[in-house]
Amino acid sequence: VQLQASGGGLVQAGSSLRLSCVASRRTFSTIAMGWFRQAPGKEREFVAAIGWSGGSTIYADSAKDRFTISRDNAKNTVYLQMNNLKPEDAAVYYCAAGTRVAMTGYDYWGPGTLVTVSS
Fold first, then answer.
1. What is the mean pLDDT of residues 25-47?
2. Which of the two ends of the chain, N or C, has the fewest CB atoms closer than 10 A to its terminal CB?
3. d(Cα 59, Cα 19) in Å, to the nearest integer?
């Protein structure tokens, strides 16, 4: 599975961004997808994940109430809608593909997209 994330950029605190991740796999609709992020000097951390049908989602505490993960299986795409962005949300965001909705255990990773949030 090849993954390509996009949608990052420089925004002001309080703004919104929607990240997208397109997967190459024809059976995209059968796999779980996740979003992770890594800020400079920090370890990569889980953000959100979604099951193959979109009916199952999980979020990190930092993402609850502000971020929404969704997917469009017809477009082989998973999204991360981020609202009310904070400076601490600045990071490289990665999408990942796996077999289950979880905070770990993903098999495939994309190259990431940079999100910068100015205060």
1. 91
2. C
3. 16
